[in-house]
Predict the 3D structure of the following.
Amino acid sequence: GAVVSQHPSWVICKSGTSVKIECRSLDFQATTMFWYRQFPKQSLMLMATSNEGSKATYEQGVEKDKFLINHASLTLSTLTVTSAHPEDSSFYICSARGTTSGSIYEQYFGPGTRLTVT
Amino acid sequence: ELKVEQNPLFLSMQEGKNYTIYCNYSTTSDRLYWYRQDPGKSLESLFVLLSNGAVKQEGRLMASLDTKARLSTLHITAAVHDLSATYFCAVDFDAGNMLTFGGGTRLMVKP
């Protein structure tokens, strides 16, 4: 149980275009989802926290107009990178936490999405 | 400021040897997590430590938590090549609202 999926697993896009990444909790209801970003050989940095039905809370330094997060249902959150630039190339990982998952203390991580902007 | 520091950041060791990775954090918390990450992959949960004195073991890995010292350790016993990966600790400072990650320890076990 407590499986989180992401789609796509990798994507290449041209500079200036937008890319949408989906994060789904497959077997539980995720009241909270988190979006992280990881550059090569670095740690995970929290970008934003989203609760179902409300606006996402962004970490300091993360542009909310560039990284649009929508958490429209208890099983789906999306991250849209708008007007992507090469510096947005990174590994994006989502996680989910919910009262019906295995443990209310755990975040369950998706497999990640590798974004390359050319 | 919420900080989580791991050391060492890089560890190269021979198979069969023992070693410990340390995770220090800046502010009181009794929820600490250890994860493994293989190259190009996401995180795999290893241990969840939820109280002072908690100790958990799985195979050649053992994790412990000392909340008074704000310290967690991940001990590796008789390392094998398959343990080569990057290990992260993460601390929940805010009762489930967010995790703050350490910088990671890249472990290479040489055969």
In short: The two ends of chain B are 41 Å apart (CA to CA). Chain B is about 0% helix and 55% strand. The longest strand of chain B covers residues 85-92. Chain B touches chain A at residues 31, 33, 35, 40-43, 45, 48, 50, 88, 92, 96-104, 106 (CB under 8 Å).
